């Protein structure tokens, strides 16, 4: 059940429990300013910090950020190395801050292809923040939803019976005995593109999709508030009929948050 959300315009009754974000637009942000793409990635880390700090205040309990896809290995080696360096610094610098804030950090995706030492740093950060209950921050790193589903399906073949809940546990990783992550309520993609890019395909079956033109380094806590406010105005029917089944969905109140409307990339 969602918790009340406080926004500048008042209290909204139904905020999202699990928000997932495709953090798109770092490179374009830098190019537009005559800067190297790595500068955009550095600013993107700051945007991620803003969102992580704001999320618990908006009633968000699980936040999943798409940091690096399995397809991103195709990018130039120098850019990949810079991204891995930023991820290493993020883990090193933010672990104690997350622990103090009551946030738990975990990652999803492969670890065997990460640079030497990064996987160990991630494991140490996960252990140091394991007691966090205020926010579950999940960072998707070397992640592909299709690969995750395929891996879970292979492991499910050894089970006598498979339910949706059991499959969700397998998707969450480990041996399938852990607590499954709740389905995504709100999926946000910045940068104007309108696709999921192999991100949380199973978990987003009934997610509300919000595509915003703002490039990720410019995304602010106020933008997250606007997204949550837009979500609260949605009627989620999960295949059934609701009281307002014939109503036209209203757009977000804040400028810059425009769902399902083509924008110039």
TrEMBL record:
Cofactors named for this entry: Mg(2+)
Cofactor note: Binds 2 magnesium ions per subunit.
Transmembrane segments annotated in the record for this chain: none
Top-level taxonomic group: Bacteria
A Pfam family: Prenyltransf
Alphabetic keyword roster: Magnesium, Metal-binding, Transferase
Protein residues bound to Mg(2+): 24, 208
Active site residues per record: 24, 72
Residues reported to bind substrate: 25-29, 37, 41, 69-71, 73, 75, 189, 195-197
Classification via SUPFAM superfamilies: Undecaprenyl diphosphate synthase
GO function terms (MF aspect): ditrans,polycis-undecaprenyl-diphosphate synthase [(2E,6E)-farnesyl-diphosphate specific] activity; magnesium ion binding
EC number(s) per entry: 2.5.1.-
Function summary: Catalyzes the condensation of isopentenyl diphosphate (IPP) with allylic pyrophosphates generating different type of terpenoids.
Assembly information from the UniProt record: Homodimer.
Protein's name in the database: Isoprenyl transferase
Species this chain originates from: Rhodoplanes serenus
Lineage: Bacteria, Pseudomonadati, Pseudomonadota, Alphaproteobacteria, Hyphomicrobiales
